[in-house]
Amino acid sequence: MAAMAGAGGGGARMGGGGRMGGGGGPMTITMDAAMLKIETTGGDGSTTTQTYKLDGSESKNMMMGRGGQMEQVSHAKIDGAKVVIVTTTANGDRTQSWYMDGDWLVREQTFGENAIKTYFKKAQ
Fold first, then answer.
1. Distance between CA atoms of 64 and 68, rounded to whole angstroms?
2. Domain that includes residue 64, residue range
3. Is residue 100 part of a domain?
4. N or C terminus of the chain with fewer C-beta within 10 Å?
5. In which residue ranges of the chain is pLDDT below 50?
6. Cβ contacts of residue 10 below 8 Å, gap of 6+?
7. Is residue 4 in some structural domain?
C-alpha cells in the first residue's frame, strides 16, 4: 500500500475484470507522489490513458462518450489509504475510490445512488 499512499513510485499491470467482473483488456497503473496514471487497452488494441494530479487540483482527460470524445474534469486526492477521484459529468458527480484489499486492487465507483466495486489482480 506504500505506493498507493504516495510514499514512492509504483506501477502494476492488471488483468481486466476480477472477482466482480469488469471485463476489458489489460490495464497498467502507475503512481508517484504527485500523479496517478491509468492506461487501458481495448479489445481492438487501442489504448486510453487517464492522468490525475493527486493534489486536488483540476485534471482533464478525454473520454469516449455516446457522441464521441469529450473532455472530463476531475479532482483527485489521497484520503488515508485510498485515492479518491471525483469527476463532474453532465449527469452529476461520479466518484472513484482506488484502494488495496489484501492482494486485490479495488475500484469502487459511485454515481447517483448506484455503486459498483471491481476487483483487479496483478498479472503474473
1. 5
2. 10-121
3. yes
4. C
5. 1-22
6. 2, 3, 4, 30, 31, 32
7. no
For 111-115, the CB contacts below 8 A with 24+ separation are: none
Distance CA 61, CA 38 (A): 11
Contact 34/53 with Cβ under 8 angstroms?
yes
Sign of CA dihedral 75, 78, 26, 110: negative
Is 43 inside a domain boundary? yes
**pTM, entire model:** 0.77
- pLDDT for the residue 90: 79
Question: Does some domain include residue 65?
Answer: yes
State the distance between the two ends of the chain, measured CA to CA, in whole angstroms: 18
Total number of domains in the chain: 1
pLDDT value, residue 123 = 77
Instruction: For residue 32, give the H/E element and its range.
Output: none
CATH code, 29: 2.40.128.20
